[in-house]
Amino acid sequence: MGAGVTSAVDPLRRVETYLDAVPRVSGRAEDFGPLTLFVADEGAPFPYCARPAVVAPGRVAHPGPGPDDVWRVRERQRRLGVPESFEWIGEHAPGLRAAAGKAGLRVWERPLMVLDTAGADAHAAAPPGLGAEGPGLGTEVPGCGRSVPGAVVRVLGAGDPALPGALAVPYLAFAEAPPGGGRGSPLRLEDAVGLYVTPWTLARARDRVRAGHTVVAAALDDAGVPLCAGQLLPLGGTTELVGIGTLPAVRRRGLGAAVTAALVAEARRLGLTTVFLTANDERAAQLYARHGFRTAATACFAQPAPGGGAG
Asked: Are residues 131 and 251 in the same domain?
């Protein structure tokens, strides 16, 4: 299967099945009829949310959730102390936007993109030998850092000393007001590691890397400090690219493109048949299109609107 990464047979159904299955690896599922609430275990790679219930491979419940269903899940999320967060593929649950709005949630949309190998960049092809960890430190990805002077792109092994920093990079890359010192400095990254990467979460991440449930790629400076990082979360023949973020002080140097190329190369090496991601906006979607991704659907997200209480 290594020659191709996407399939012409309904990739969105594979994505739907994947999004229902992945949270069950590091969490539990609670049944709310047409909705499923996923609750992450400690050390899970990312927070989980509620999604439309999958009733058959790639197919969600119909009729879809109503406002009362959304309210019940919100109340449960509050009791558990987890984010009141919902996600879904807009085309698969078209009525959920209105139901979420009536239940006091703010809804926004982003492009959901699937990899199209016919249009992929040549440099995204898997280099020979990628993935051989040796002593557990990881593997440099030849070519992916060629346009980024002073950076090396590596798929990190479980024992790689850069792994804690790579796990912390997204917290700094996407935070509106990140903690710590100067913007993008190694000290600030160390602060983020201390805040967000506990010994338990690091141990779980290492276990996931060893098991192949998580693939972490990072662009490192000459001192081995991660400047940009991202992940694959493979399950079956499908994977999502998640958390691709660059430290604010070193943006616009091509680091994100290099890490994306490394992750696509690793997905190819692993022979994954469906590879997808959610772009933050249309500008990001244009950048991912250079790597062969095409917009295939609408990713919808909902969280409490300002002043939206629990009924």
From this structure: yes
